[in-house]
Amino acid sequence: MSYQAMARRWRPRRFEDMVGQEHVARTLRNALVRGHLHHAFLFTGTRGVGKTTSARILARMLNCQEQDAELRPCGKCESCLEIEKGASMDVLEIDAASHTGVDDVRELREQLKYAASHGRYRVVILDEVHMLSKAAFNALLKTLEEPPPHVVFILATTEVHKVPQTILSRVQRYDFRRLTPLQVRDRLIHICKADGITADPEALDIVALRADGSMRDGLSLFDQVFAFAGETITADDVRRTLGVPDSASHTRLVEHLANGNIAGSVGEVHLALERGVDSVEYIRGFGEFLRNVLFSRMDGLPDGALSLMPERVAELREKTAKLSEGDILRWARMVSDTTQQMRDAHHPRLALEMAVARMACLDKVADLRRLLAGEALPALTPGPPIASAREGGNPALGAMGSAPPSRSEPPARPSRGPNLQQAVEGDPTLGRLVETFDATPTSE
Question: Confidence band (pLDDT; 50, 70, 90) for 42?
């Protein structure tokens, strides 16, 4: 195959090309220039944030033939080119998930007795190091603590909590950060300009949000969309390819839920699923939407706290201003429970539709403090009128075509007892609460 995936073709070759990991790049660069380089490193972080890429860049920096440390890696010398092609004898990149035993560590120790063939160091990159067995970790301890002077270890893992403390105490640990949607989007814009691709800003926003902090995931998704749409990419192309629900669908669903419109709520879900959106993906996206609605009302949140582009925060606040925090929290809790249920459900769509119907049936949350301040209760949306027999309704509701009998007046509340009256007179707050209760209409 002559085509190379974007995630590989756009893999950074220098620390200056890394996105979002400036703290790691600066520390390693300064250590190399000042000659204070450690003999063992541990790179940890979520998937697709540059751990293995940084290990390869560091290996090229250590063995680059350029005399000026500031210019390493040069990318032109024999050592740099061999490492980039994966053909260097001085760099051992080992997948610890498939080399988990003591025998593998013993074989590695035997190889490290020999000096580097071309470069200055023999660099060992152990990817997914948390997969080593306990016995393999113990066999590695002595070599990791006092390796030969020509050996440098670079360990990489996504689950650092599985690495023994005895290993952690022998290495320098570097935590790689998740990328923000803005950083992923800026990288995609750079790639589009370099490759001559025309993409709508909204299309790039969707891909950046779907990447979930991983640059590799973002590039893989964009590569998939590019294969579908070609050199001109729209937001609809991204939604059709990745099965992403439209954010406007979630906005309309919230409006139906706030109005208690069961038919509209279930109908909105039906329309989304008919467009090819997966039911689990839809409920997951709706939960993320509710989170953005709630957190967008808070001031002082750090950058990246919202899975939303900064320019859309004000728009989201305006569209959801009438929603109460109590209703949002109740819906979010139901979404969380429904997501868990749908993982094992035989009919996920039914579980989703029933959950949405229950949300629409909920009564509105009333703030007790506002009621005590004299504000009216939330207005309930009236249901459709019941048609009489003469208008084509159920004949059982009105025999002989007559109108249904009028409803009687609701019964009056019982008078306050002496104990309650005495308590009200001694507590003004309780008095206001009881007055509000008395003013609330009773049901039959």
Answer: very high
Handedness of CA 157, 161, 163, 167 (dihedral sign): positive
- Residue for token pair 């949300």: 359
> What pLDDT sits at residue 161?
95
Alpha helices in 64-180 (DSSP H): 78-85, 102-111, 134-145, 165-168
Chain centre to alpha carbon of residue 21:
19
CATH of 6-175 given 3.40.50.300, 3.20.20.210, 3.30.300.20, 3.20.20.330: 3.40.50.300
Write down the CATH number for the domain with range 181-242: 1.10.8.60
In the predicted model, what is the mean pLDDT of the chain?
83
- Determine the pLDDT at residue 338: 92
What's the pTM value of the predicted model, to 2 decimals? 0.74
pLDDT at 394: 45
- Output the CA–CA distances (angstroms, integers) from residue 80 to 12, 63, 112, 217, in the order listed: 14, 7, 21, 27
Buried b (16+ CB within 10 A) or exposed e, 409-425: eeeeeeeeeeeeeeebe
262-285: per-residue pLDDT in tens? 999 999 999 999 888 889 889 988
Q: Which CATH number fits domain 247-361: 1.20.1250.20, 3.30.450.20, 1.20.272.10, 1.10.3720.10?
A: 1.20.272.10
Residue 78 and residue 62: Cα distance in Å, rounded? 13
